[in-house]
Amino acid sequence: MRILDIFKKKDKDIEQINIQYTPEHIAIIMDGNGRWAQRRNMPRTQGHRAGMESVRDIIKACSQLGVRVLTLYAFSTENWKRSEEEVSFLMNLLVEYAKKEVKELNRQRVKLIASGDISQLPGYAFREVKNAIHLTANNDGLIVNLALNYGGRDEIVNATKKIYQDISDKKLEIKDINESLFSRYLYTRDLPDPDLLIRTGGELRLSNFLLYQSAYAELYFTEVMWPDFRKQHLIEAIEDYQGRSRRFGGINKR
Ligand code: FPP
């Protein structure tokens, strides 16, 4: 059903891609908004606004490509250190997105979810995000996972606390703990691990993003700033991914 839908919508760009090896889960560190704006003598916040267009474009492209999960690093546990003005701009942008975009997400059958401690977002942002998640919950297309107030270390510490709690409550025994059980205590729970992790903006680091889940992700770094990142750049990243040999520590998987 999904594949048929993709072929109905296929265009010239999509034809470039070998659908069979399209990553199931793509995760993106959307970096470079501030620099993109500063280079244009605009306030950093305008870079975030421009970055919203890339979010729309990449969600649409991933839907067309039949990607199952797209995780977007929208706000990290460290981003609270930014100026009050920038933090509040980002929260308002999130609210605007959650309110305005639901109709389009439903049209594309996109299901919105979040990873991170969203209960710590300002009340107005928390409510809108929860509402958008609720309104898209029955969609069966691309899963867009917004990493919000997300930090990889925080996630691992949290999982450890929850496991300890379940052991104390006799719901779990130490012998039950293994990698797959541990994964289910992470914010990403039932999601597959990312196959392809993209970072825009030229920096070469993970910045506390999906530390546990990215153990075998293929990493792709590009100089392109997030507000300039479009479907064609995503296709380049996927083509690069398709040229890699994924061995997962063993010998050739494909
Ligand atoms: C990093 O760029 C980007 C962020 C911290 C925020 C990302 C947010 C968006 C793209 C818009 C909102 C998205 C949604 C899904 C509502 P940076 O500011 O660190 O850039 P710099 O490295 O050039 O300073």
Which features would summarize this protein structure in a list?
254 residues; alpha/beta; 10 helices; globular; disordered N terminus; binds farnesyl diphosphate
Report on the architecture of this protein.
Helices cover 44% and strands 13% of the residues. The chain is α/β, with parallel strands linked by helices and 254 residues long. The protein has a six-stranded parallel β-sheet, with helices on both faces. The radius of gyration is 18 Å and the shape is globular. The two termini are 25 Å apart. It binds farnesyl diphosphate.
Distance between the termini: 25 Å
Strands, total number: 6
**H and E order:** HHEHHEHHEHEHHEEH
Largest sheet: 6 strands, parallel
Supply the helix-strand structural class: alpha/beta
Shape, principal axes of CA atoms: globular
Summarize the amount of helix as a percent range. 40-55%
Strand fraction: 5-15%
* Lateral arrangement of strands in the main beta sheet: 3-4-2-1-5-6
Would you identify the regions where 5 or more consecutive residues have pLDDT less than 50?
1-8
Bound molecules: farnesyl diphosphate
Report the total helices. Answer: 10
Q: What is the C-alpha radius of gyration, as a whole number of Å?
A: 18 Å
The residue-averaged pLDDT reads 93
